[in-house]
């Protein structure tokens, strides 16, 4: 092999190596999470599975102790599960979701609610709920609501621009960048070994990044949110290109700017000091699993906090876990429910009429 040919082969090998390593390279945790969050806004279609569980809920407040309604509510909510399975596509805009609610305790119950949303309408399938019986002639039907009519009934003007997917993605990207850039990587971000992240089956991650807040960083995190992030968010929302999209008037923007600029630093710091006396963060983690295409394929959140008032001896403990898994990103959306047929749809007037005669 002559030297010239060997040099060409070596150059090709090095080039391929660089390209391959670049395709699946790991980035600094903060950069990786920021890029993944922004890439999420570029997803034109996906399947989604979410789960939210209240693992622990303890309320010790003398004023409501012994109240049977409060006790029953706490029992139902503890270990309650909320699930959401959905399919989304951007163009033409269509989303369908199956909301599952599973309550525990003496009044345990489970039911599902199917929903479909398009550019102009939202359909909600009327479920069969033991504690809230609906007339038989409406159960299983899809209640249709026109988004334009809903806006008008609330005294607002419906604008299709509010459902502009491209603009919403651009807006979300700017907000995400404004939020994440303000938090220091060393204090709030770290990398988790993929093998230790307890990822569900089917999640092929190249990197897992954790955003976390501890008791030691809580005060600073809140100060960053109020003093640095909030003003940036208001400035972004004030841009002409987002005003109609967000349904904001100049008066709304002026009011928001006045509020974020009028924060009294001394009072705010005093409030933060007071908050740390009764609030304790045991755990607050958000893990993001990033796939080889830099999409956030899976995300979970763990929060465990205590609220204790030393003066009244009131205390509340809350522990929750949540997760979302994305599949079939930017592939053809295969809807399971589809747009409900006319025979399966009822209007709000028909629903109210049926309820009135029930």
What is the element layout, followed by pairings?
Blueprint: H1 3-23, H2 29-40, E1 45-60, H3 68-77, E2 81-89, E3 94-103, E4 109-118, E5 121-125, E6 142-146, H4 147-153, H5 165-180, H6 185-188, E7 189-192, E8 207-212, H7 215-237, H8 240-246, H9 250-261, H10 265-278, E9 279-290, E10 296-309, E11 314-327, E12 345-346, H11 348-356
Parallel strand pairs: 6-12
Antiparallel strand pairs: 1-2, 1-11, 2-3, 3-4, 4-5, 5-6, 7-8, 8-9, 9-10, 10-11
Keywords: Signal
Protein name: Lipoprotein
Signal peptide: 1-21
Task: Trace the largest sheet across and list its strands.
Answer: 7-8-9-10-11-1-2-3-4-5-6-12
User: Could you tell me how far the N terminus lies from the C terminus, measured between alpha carbons in angstroms?
Assistant: 91 Å
- Percent of residues in β-strands: 25-35%
Number of domains: 1
Strand count, sense and barrel status of the largest sheet are: 12 strands, mixed
The general outline is globular
Residue ranges: pLDDT <50 for 5 or more in a row? 1-24
Can you tell me about this structure?
The protein has 358 residues and is an alpha+beta fold. It has one domain (27-356). 38% of the residues lie in helices and 30% in strands. The protein is built from eleven helices and twelve strands. A twelve-stranded mixed beta sheet has the order 7-8-9-10-11-1-2-3-4-5-6-12. A hairpin with a 5-residue loop joins strand 3 and strand 4. The longest helix is centred in the middle third of the chain and has 23 residues, at 215-237. It starts with a helix and ends with a helix.
């Amino acid at each position: 092999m002559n030297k010239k040919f060997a040099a060409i082969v070596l150059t090709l090998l090095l080039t391929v190596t660089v390209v391959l390593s670049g395709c699946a390279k790991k980035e600094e945790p903060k950069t990786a999470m920021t890029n993944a969050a922004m890439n999420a806004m570029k997803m034109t279609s996906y399947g989604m599975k979410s789960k939210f569980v209240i693992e622990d809920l303890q309320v010790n407040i003398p004023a409501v102790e012994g109240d049977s309604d409060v006790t029953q509510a706490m029992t139902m909510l503890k270990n309650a599960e909320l699930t959401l399975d959905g399919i989304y596509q951007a163009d033409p805009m269509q989303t369908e979701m199956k909301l599952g609610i599973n309550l525990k305790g003496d009044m345990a119950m489970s039911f599902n609610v199917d929903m479909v949303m398009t550019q102009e309408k939202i359909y909600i399938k009327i479920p069969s709920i033991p504690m809230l019986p609906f007339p038989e002639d409406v159960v299983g039907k899809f209640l249709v609501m026109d988004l334009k009519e809903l806006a008008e009934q609330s005294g607002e003007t419906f604008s299709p621009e509010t459902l502009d997917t491209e603009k919403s993605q651009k807006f979300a990207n700017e907000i995400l960048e404004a939020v994440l850039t303000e938090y220091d990587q060393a204090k709030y971000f770290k990398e988790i070994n993929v093998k230790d992240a307890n990822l569900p089956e089917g999640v092929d991650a190249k990197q897992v990044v954790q955003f976390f807040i501890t008791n030691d960083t809580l005060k600073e995190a809140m100060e960053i949110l109020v003093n640095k992030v909030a003003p940036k968010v208001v400035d972004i929302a004030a841009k002409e290109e987002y005003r109609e999209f967000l349904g904001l008037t100049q008066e709304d923007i002026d009011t928001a700017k006045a509020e974020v600029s009028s924060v009294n630093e001394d009072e705010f710091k005093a409030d933060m000091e007071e908050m740390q006396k009764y609030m304790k963060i045991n755990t607050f983690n958000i893990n993001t699993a990033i796939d080889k295409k830099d999409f956030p394929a899976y995300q979970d959140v763990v929060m465990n906090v205590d609220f204790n008032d030393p003066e009244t001896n009131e205390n509340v403990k809350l522990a929750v876990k949540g997760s979302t898994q994305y599949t079939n990103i930017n592939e053809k959306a295969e809807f399971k429910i589809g747009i409900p047929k006319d025979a399966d749809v009822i209007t709000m007037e028909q629903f109210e009429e049926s309820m009135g005669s029930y």
